[in-house]
Every structure is written in C-alpha cells, then in structure tokens.
Design goal:
TIM Barrel, 51% helix, globular, two-stranded parallel ribbon, alpha/beta
Length: 290
C-alpha cells in the first residue's frame, strides 16, 4: 500500500487533491472511510485537539490502523491544528501519520522555532522506529471557528497585506524543514452565511512556485466547487473540510429523532447522521478528483 507521502505526491502530479475530513466520533470515522472506499480514493481523517481528547489519542490510531489493515484501504490519520509542542509530541508518539503545528497566531520567528522542533522530533521517531510522520506548518491566520458565521471574524487574513507572502512561505519551509505547508489565501475556518469569499488563486500559484512542498487548503467548507477546483489546479494537494460535515451529521440526527422520537437504540438513530456525513464526503471527494 502507498504511504501518505506517496499518495500526496501522486495527487500533486495528477492535479487532484486528497480529501481531509474531521471526525468527532466513530460514526464520523466510518462515514469518511466508507465514502473513500466506495470511490477507491485515499483519504485523511483529521482530529483536532478537542476531537482527539473526545475519541482518545491512542484509540484513534488503533481504529485507523485496523481499518487500513482489514480493508487494505489507504486511510490516514492527521493531528489537526495542534497548538503546542507537547501536544504534537503526543500525536507523534501515538503513531499519527501526520501532525499540523498551528502557530499562525504567533510571530513568524516563534512559529518557525516551534515548528522546527516538531520536525526534529518527528525525524527522531522515524530514525528510531522507521515510521514516517509528516509535519505540516501553517503561516497566516484564518480563524479557529467551525460554526456558521454572519461575517468574517476580526483578525482573519483577507487583505493582500494579511495573506501569506511567497517570500515568507519560502523562508518558513526552508528554516523548518516541514513536509506540508498551509497558507492563508482567502480561506477561512467555519462558513460565512451566503458563501465564503473567493480564494486568491494567483496567491496560491505564487506560493506553489516559491516552495518545494505540497500545499494544504484549510477551511474549505463554504467554498464553491469551482473555486476549489481552481485552487487544486493552482497547486493545492490536500483540502480540509469540517464544518459542512458537522452540519450534515447534526441535521441527519435531528431529522431522524423528530420523525421517530421513541427510538432508543443509538446504532439506529445515529446511522442516518453517519450516512448524511458520508454523502458530503463523497460529494467533496468527487470535486477534489475531477
């Protein structure tokens, strides 16, 4: 089976993207796994710090590894938006396939300093256990919400001056040694009512040409299929979706319980929620792989 790095390289060469979808429960993990399996595509399950705390760090690794082994499926686990070196080390030690250190709210110097330590620690683990853990760095603040928002929060990078600059991206990658890079290119966490602003495709191309590592698009919930396709063609190799999945899961659960308020078996009333989430993953994967 191909490694995560090999899958990313292949996606980059073919101008498609690997879908990265967050989960908070085992239902979410199976929704992502089943959608990708049905389309015969590699996929990444992302767990934020809060999601890891809820599912269990070691338990999440065991679940993903068992699915990968039992179904011979290229499914991988990413420690999404990790805000400290200790939490990054925790995920690396547990056996995650990738870890994002999110220092976007820090100065570039401090961001580089901690990200580099994450990279060095992951390399040590690879030397000791022969297990490769990809490290992703993030430069440019795109918010932290996964809700539906009335407007863009204050501080989120939207103007040309706030967006990630190619020269800063080049320095960041060179000094940290990261495997993946997440820039601020007009993307935003959460979803804006009425639709998210268009992505800065020229900025994506500029950054892609300036650095040697694959680009990751965070906060793709709310962006149009056309915008996402343009971003992939411009150089994005991994696309993150979370908010749309949470909305689908909640809507599926509410709908079932409103129609059958007497059901008490969780595996029955949670199934429609899982299937609603799975449908969104399938739709997104088709967009990413056109």
């Amino acid at each position: 089976m191909k490694s995560l790095r090999e899958c990313i390289v292949e996606a980059r060469e073919n101008k498609v993207a690997i879908g990265h979808f967050n989960a908070s429960t085992i239902d979410g993990i199976w929704a992502i796994a089943d959608a990708a399996k049905g389309l015969d595509l590699p996929v990444i399950v992302g767990l934020s710090e809060g999601e890891r705390d809820y599912i269990g760090v070691n338990q999440a690794v065991a679940i993903i590894k068992s699915i990968r082994k039992d179904r011979n499926q290229p499914i991988f686990l990413n420690a999404d938006h990790t805000y400290s070196l200790d939490r990054a080390k925790e995920a690396i030690d547990a056996g995650f396939d990738a870890v994002i250190f999110d220092g976007a709210s820090l100065s570039i110097e401090e961001n580089i300093k901690i990200t580099k330590k994450c990279v060095e620690y992951a390399r040590e683990i690879k030397t000791e256990s022969n297990q490769e853990i990809l490290i992703e760095g993030e430069l440019g603040f795109i918010g932290t919400s996964s809700k539906v928002l009335d407007e863009i929060p204050v501080g989120v990078a939207m103007t040309e001056e706030q967006l990630t600059k190619a020269k800063d991206a080049e320095r960041f990658v060179r000094e940290t040694g990261i495997d993946l890079f997440a820039p601020a290119v007009g993307n935003i966490h959460g979803m804006i009512i009425g639709g998210d602003p268009s992505l800065n495709i020229l900025k994506i191309k500029e950054i892609c040409n300036a650095i040697p590592v694959p680009l990751v698009l965070h906060g793709a919930s709310g962006n149009s299929p056309e915008d996402i396709r343009k971003a992939i063609e411009a150089g994005i190799s991994i696309v993150h979706v979370n908010t749309e999945l949470r909305l689908a899961y909640r809507a599926g659960l509410v709908k079932y319980l409103s129609e059958d308020s007497e059901e008490v078996a969780p595996y029955k009333y949670l199934k429609p929620a899982k299937l609603a989430m799975q449908k969104v993953v399938e739709e997104k994967l088709k967009i990413f792989n056109k």
